[in-house]
From TrEMBL:
<feature type="transmembrane region" description="Helical">
    <location>
        <begin position="270"/>
        <end position="288"/>
    </location>
</feature>
<keyword id="KW-0807">Transducer</keyword>
<keyword id="KW-0472">Membrane</keyword>
<keyword id="KW-1003">Cell membrane</keyword>
<dbReference type="GO" id="GO:0004984">
    <property type="term" value="F:olfactory receptor activity"/>
</dbReference>
<feature type="transmembrane region" description="Helical">
    <location>
        <begin position="196"/>
        <end position="224"/>
    </location>
</feature>
<dbReference type="InterPro" id="IPR017452">
    <property type="entry name" value="GPCR_Rhodpsn_7TM"/>
</dbReference>
<feature type="transmembrane region" description="Helical">
    <location>
        <begin position="24"/>
        <end position="47"/>
    </location>
</feature>
<dbReference type="Pfam" id="PF13853">
    <property type="entry name" value="7tm_4"/>
</dbReference>
<feature type="domain" description="G-protein coupled receptors family 1 profile">
    <location>
        <begin position="384"/>
        <end position="596"/>
    </location>
</feature>
<dbReference type="InterPro" id="IPR000725">
    <property type="entry name" value="Olfact_rcpt"/>
</dbReference>
<feature type="transmembrane region" description="Helical">
    <location>
        <begin position="612"/>
        <end position="632"/>
    </location>
</feature>
<keyword id="KW-0716">Sensory transduction</keyword>
<dbReference type="GO" id="GO:0004930">
    <property type="term" value="F:G protein-coupled receptor activity"/>
</dbReference>
<dbReference type="GO" id="GO:0005886">
    <property type="term" value="C:plasma membrane"/>
</dbReference>
<protein>
    <recommendedName>
        <fullName>G-protein coupled receptors family 1 profile domain-containing protein</fullName>
    </recommendedName>
</protein>
<feature type="domain" description="G-protein coupled receptors family 1 profile">
    <location>
        <begin position="40"/>
        <end position="257"/>
    </location>
</feature>
Length: 647
């Protein structure tokens, strides 16, 4: 079916009217709105950050809401403004997916934040005496982090589902940004799975957030009407009036926007209000009727006026203004030139949309044997790692920092194995060993995520062993269960960001040299060799992000084990030394194998190809070995296994 369609890699955003006079007016109007939106929202974020009096749950949520509104505006408005002036209103497939990702992320976060703010107002009005215990600053930060994680996962799921579609009907999007339903209409792939993901993930999010808001305000209204004092009612209404107004506007526009239209197209005025006007209104809704914010604004304005007078008295105003305008002009010229070069590259090359994984094709006689071996390895890996996760979850005695890290490590090992092995097994008996561009990027993302998380988790486990051996009396205070969970969450966030950055840089490349990847999975360096785009930025991102991660984690492991060995050699008791060695022997073995394979896998080879045997050990064998390393020599794990089997 794929061969019968010419797949679309660029879209044209139809957007607004082609009337030249109206286009100029709309450009000026939306430019002013964008400027005010960014200044208002980012100014509110800076204001809340600077003023300690505003470091309360309500304002923490408000700062995050302003940040998401600015993110939403940045995702849509600049491209829309560009299309008012440009003759061709094209947007590449990758830019379209990125725009949708950030829009989905911002709007999902808005839903969660508005629900959390409604709950905060409920606690403040209905349980004022318990407010500081029920809604602490720490809890509000944790809720905000949870909001961003959930929104990120939701947007990744929805964007990934869009990436599986093939667009061949037309390249005209009847909208001013890449929205999900107009893209469905251009797809020649059945969007059933995409619609299913919307019902599974998006609908429950909407139901949960709307229900939370309705229940919160129902309880608030009941409490207010029970009040006998008019002043009490007035204060209660003023406390939640701005939030209630913002929520009402947001969900009225959302429901109107989601609702079906007669002609099957989105109502553009409602979309404008939903994505552009609401981010403009929110800073004014929350600040103009808020005394604390107004007082802080006045204080900042006084400081600004003093600073301005100082600068004007010591600097030449005209000279400084000319210098700023000159820098802006140079940047605009450079950006224009860069975009033209990138477009010329895009048009001069026919980009590869499918790759062929060469893998083990050089050993045709061994393919049956290799298939059986890797099938057994995959089965044992998944049973061993997921079994270890379930065992640690079920056994309360194993709910300690070391085993929390170990369960997360097992989870990442199973993720790594799932990302690579199934496709490799399929290719042993497949006539064409093709993998689509999107599948290749997804494989790179999950592999990068799992391996980065492994690095962080192994370093966290090394630090845990250091505390256990070098500071045993302070272990429960220095390495609490809560801290280990926070470190695990931080690991997943950092790994996700790292993999998104590297895969995002891969998406900017155009592959036209060949479609053959000399590997059994989509690795970064083999993909670089197929690129006809300059990979300088990609290599720069590796040096900026990947290298510091490796240096930090390896240094943490080395310093931790240096201190551990130093402490062990100072022990006079042989039994004490044996116990200390047995405590960290399994982890030291796992770390040694992991980093030896990493160093060997990343070293340059004379032929320029990856050593497949090292890659197999690094990506397939290590996830197989780890559960046995940590369980066979561990009495607590062995005892827990026996207890589970007996029950």
């Amino acid at each position: 079916m794929k061969e019968n369609h010419s797949l679309t890699t660029e879209f044209i955003l139809v957007g607004f009217s082609d009337n030249p006079v109206l286009k100029i007016l709309l450009f000026l109007l939306f430019s002013a709105i964008y400027l005010v939106t960014m200044v208002g929202n980012l100014g509110l974020v800076v204001l809340i950050y600077m003023e300690r009096r505003l470091h309360t749950p309500m304002y923490i949520f408000l700062g995050n809401l302003a940040l998401m509104d600015s993110c939403c505006s940045c995702a849509i408005t600049p491209k829309m403004l560009e299309n008012f002036i440009c003759v061709d209103r094209r947007i590449s497939l990758y830019e379209c997916m990125i725009q949708f990702y950030f829009l989905c992320f911002a709007e999902t976060a808005d839903c969660f934040l508005l629900a959390v703010m409604a709950y905060d107002r409920y606690v403040a009005i209905c349980n004022p005496l318990q407010y500081h215990t029920m809604m602490s600053k720490k809890l509000s930060i944790q809720m905000s982090i949870g909001t961003f994680i959930a929104s990120n996962l939701h947007s990744i799921i929805q964007t990934s589902c869009l990436l599986r579609l093939n667009f061949c009907k037309s390249n005209h999007i009847d909208h001013f940004f890449c929205d999900i339903l107009p893209l469905y209409r251009l797809s020649c792939t059945d969007p059933f799975i995409n619609e299913l993901m919307i019902y599974i993930f998006s609908m429950p999010i909407q139901v949960f957030t709307i229900t939370t808001i309705l229940v919160s305000y129902f309880c608030i209204l009941l409490t207010i009407f029970k009040m006998k004092s008019k002043d009490g009612r007035g204060k209660a209404f003023s406390t939640c009036a701005s939030h209630f107004l913002s929520v009402s506007i947001f969900y009225i526009c959302l429901l109107t926007y989601i609702g079906p239209s007669k002609d099957g197209n989105k109502d553009i005025p409602v979309a404008v209000f939903y994505t552009i006007i609401i981010p403009l209104l929110n800073p004014f809704i929350y600040s103009l009727r808020n005394k604390e914010v107004l007082n802080t604004v006045k204080k900042v304005m006084k400081i600004y006026s003093k600073l301005k007078n100082f600068l004007l008295s010591h600097c030449n105003k005209r000279r400084r203004l000319r210098h700023i305008l000159l820098i802006i002009a140079i940047n605009c010229v450079n950006n224009f030139g860069l975009s033209r070069e990138m477009r010329m590259d895009m048009t001069n090359h026919s980009s590869t949309m499918e790759f062929i994984l060469v893998g083990f094709s050089d050993y045709p006689d061994l393919k049956t044997l290799l298939f059986l071996v890797f099938s057994v390895i995959y089965l044992v890996t998944m049973v061993g790692n997921l079994g270890l996760v379930v065992l640690i979850y079920m056994e309360r005695r194993l709910h300690t920092p070391m085993y929390i890290f170990l369960s997360n490590l097992a989870l990442m090992d199973s993720c790594c194995s799932c990302a690579i092995t199934p496709k490799m097994l399929e290719n042993f008996f497949s006539v064409d060993r093709r993998i689509s561009f999107y599948e290749c990027m997804a494989q790179s993302y999950f592999l990068c995520f799992a391996e980065t998380a492994d690095c962080f988790l192994l370093s966290a486990m090394a630090y845990d062993r250091y505390v256990a051996i070098c500071n045993p009396l302070q272990y429960h205070t220095m390495m609490s269960k809560k801290l280990s969970i926070q470190m695990s969450i931080g690991t997943f966030i950092a790994s996700n960001l790292h993999s998104m950055i590297l895969v995002g840089c891969l998406l900017r490349l155009t592959f036209c040299k060949s479609a053959r990847i000399d590997h059994f999975f989509c690795d970064v360096l083999p993909l670089y060799k197929l690129s006809c785009t300059d990979i300088f930025i990609n290599e720069l991102m590796i040096y900026i992000f990947s290298m510091p991660i490796q240096v930090f984690t390896i240094t943490t492991v080395l310093v931790s084990y240096f201190c551990i060995l130093f402490t062990i050699f100072k022990m006079k008791s042989r039994d004490g030394r044996r116990k200390a060695f047995s405590t960290c022997a399994s982890h030291f073995l796992s770390v040694s194998i992991f980093y030896i394979c990493i160093i060997m896998d990343s070293r340059p080879l004379e032929e320029g190809n990856k050593d497949l045997s090292v890659a197999v050990f690094y990506t397939i064998i290590i996830p197989l070995i780890n559960p046995f390393i940590y369980s066979l020599r561990n009495k607590e794990v062995v005892t827990a296994i026996k207890r589970v089997i007996n029950t």
